[in-house]
Design goal:
- By secondary structure, the protein is mainly alpha-helical.
- The chain has one domain.
- About 85% of the residues lie in helices and about 0% in strands.
- It has three helices and no strands.
- The longest helix has about 30 residues.
- The two termini are about 25 Å apart.
Length: about 70
């Protein structure tokens, strides 16, 4: 699909960041470090929002070109 190819490099960055945050979150959770879990989750959600906004901006122009307009 063209849309997926358009944002694939940025998506890889997003996937890598997600994996890293999830690893850190599990370590903090297993250690019972509530403060670290809260802090990491906040950072993770802010980072995810940043990535999703960037991906949306990259996909949107291509997305509109995929449809036949009357």
């Amino acid at each position: 699909m063209v849309l997926k190819k358009a944002y694939k490099p940025k998506r890889k960055q997003f996937d890598a960041a997600n994996l890293d945050y999830h690893k850190q979150l599990l370590i903090a959770f297993r250690a019972g470090d509530e403060s670290a879990v809260r802090s990491l989750m906040h950072e993770h959600m802010c980072d995810a929002e940043h990535h999703m906004t960037a991906l949306e901006g990259q996909v949107s122009p291509h997305f509109l070109l995929e449809f036949d307009h009357p």
